[in-house]
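Progress against Task 2.4 (sequence-to-structure conversion) is shown through the following example record, which the project officer requested during the mid-term review.
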Amino acid sequence: MELIIALGSNIGERRANMQKAKEYLSVHFTLIKESKIIESEPVDYLSQPCFLNQVIEFETKTVEAEKILSITQSIEDKMGREKVIDKGPRNIDIDIIFFGDKIINTEKLIIPHPSWESRSFVKDPLKELPFYQKYLQ
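Structure tokens generated for the chain above:
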């Protein structure tokens, strides 16, 4: 099943942070394709540095979205992410954007990600992935 992940980093060695997150994710999921890395202005909480962002398509045999969430959160923890300010600066942010065509709305997880369409730093890179291409036909 397709798994679309968005990565973001705006503190520390941003590009290295994203590469490390991708390596950790690749232990659990099979990399299909990744978008270019782009730089974007912060949204929501504006008093912070610009982000590097990327969207990545993986294939997974994991069928439980909550398990995928657990994996992504454990990677953020392993990388030392601290949640001091909501939507604030972070060395790594890993968001589940799509999980196949599943629609999930629980207290812990909403898929598709609720703001993917309004965020150009997700929507534009997503257009580079095979997952998105099938929706254009």
